[in-house]
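Predict structure. Chain length: 245.
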Amino acid sequence: MEKVKANILIIDDEPASMEQSRQMVSLYANPDSIYTASNSVEVMRILQSVPIDLAFVDIEMPDNDGFAIAGYIQSTQPRTKYVFLTGHTELGAKSYDYEPLDFLCKPVNALRLQKTFQRFVKSRARDQDLMDQIAIESTTGFVLVSPAEIRYVTRENRKIVIYCAKQSYTVKNSLDELELIFREYGLFRCHQSYLVSLRYVTGVAQSDFGRTYWAELKSGQRIPVSRGKYAAIQERLREGGVQFL
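Prediction complete.
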């Protein structure tokens, strides 16, 4: 298995157990990205300065049990996944009340740990898929829309419609609201009734009458561009790294 790129935190008050866990974890992660803590104060210090992706938490700690530490991790870095460690298997049932990524018995077994890291990689990929989507109020509830899939947004018969590659959505938001929401995702207000995704624009040309412009999309569609927006769309493309010769 290829080593994962992630910041790992191991929390254990027993030096020998800590070192054994660190050696096992280093089989699947870069040793330079592995942090260790033996008490709650060290945990707090690390979490204040380092974004932790995965934490291995010993349940039995002298100053605070692992469940309290897991709760603190959840409150300070909600995206952190954590795995409970213990030498007593009977504690496993209680640990699942905290929805850990996994539960491991000490000493950590290398082959069993590989499954934990495989689970971590899959879980992080699922989270990324959700992070790449935005929930927007529709006429019937809400829809999850990936900004990367949006071709353009338009006002049709007093309704706002988002057009994606294979589907369209009628939403409650105004065009002004969507302009603010999607600006950082590359959508540009090219016309009073249109937002267009610059990643799908192949060029901008004058209309047949020469008074306005059309944005040509990769799909062959043409989106109107107001005369006053022609220079602005060029500037946005330059900001995105496009060179004009």
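Summary: Helices lie at 15-25, 40-49, 66-76, 92-95, 110-131, 175-182, 230-239.
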